[in-house]
Amino acid sequence: MSAAVKRACDACHRRKVKCDGINPCRNCSSAQLTCTYNAIPQKKGPKGSRAKVISELRETQRQTSLSAKVQSRLNGLGSPSCISPSLAPTPGLLAPELVKEAVEFFFANMYSIMPIINRQRLEQQCMYIEQNPDTYCLLTSLSAYMMFQPGMSLPTGDPMLEHMPGAHIVSGTLLMEEAIRVRKGLDYLETPTLNTLCTSYFLFCSYYALEMREKAWFYLREATTLAHMCGMTKEESYAQFDNVESSRRRRLYWLLFVTERYDSGTRTLKRMMTRLT
């Protein structure tokens, strides 16, 4: 006898069908729906109608997809003030295809200068992204930064969007806003993780790519401060981790150290040149 599923996914719960509890579940896969577990379990109440809801679910997910939000922003219909006040991840925004494309692009083009992520462990975390907001923020900020890179494609399923001017910038900006918003629901300053530091670093990189240097500086300083809070300046702090984890932490610390010194030196040089002119 199979074990009972403790919790159904959002779509199966809405459709009132039996869920197998995996991610993605078989029902969502066959119906081509995004499988999420964002809803807060409610007490049992009167059973509603079993009317057709797949079309409704698809439309809701379409409206919250990155493609739809990019089109709205490009048409002037969306703005940062329209962001949902909820701190939960937006269902369907960070599609698996987008994550896969961003991860592939990062390891093919950026890993050599930013060797701060272990691919095998990242792919393992991707399997439980809906249950781990810290991982969600990491992958959202990583995807945002990749959107600003030349050659990165838009895996939105909308060929017209790929050729719309500014679509990549708007996509990256929306993902940055999503990461920052969801992150507010985490107590990451109290219990920072390695993913937390990487998220701050990718937000720095994203703002730097947009030439928004002051905001970029904020997230770089945040990352370096969190590194000090994690004890990454002390050699003994690495002994508690395995080789993969300790190697990632060392690389991240020195990447932050060098980037912070370079950025600080550049800012100082600019101030000196301004005074001389």
Describe the structure.
About 3% of the residues have low confidence. Helix 4 crosses helix 9 and helix 5 crosses helix 7. The radius of gyration is 21 Å and the shape is globular. It has twelve helices and no strands.
C-alpha Rg, in Å? 21 Å
Query: Beta-strand percentage?
Result: under 5%
Point out poorly predicted stretches: 45-51
Mean pLDDT: 81
Task: State the end-to-end CA separation.
Answer: 80 Å
| Main structural class | mainly alpha
Can you count the helices? Answer: 12
Order of helices and strands: HHHHHHHHHHHH
Shape: globular
Secondary structure: number of strands: 0
Helix content: 55-70%
Brief overview, please?
With 277 residues, the protein is mainly α. It has helices at 10-15, 26-31, 54-63, 66-74, 96-109, 119-126, 133-147, 159-162, 167-183, 194-209, 213-229, 243-276.
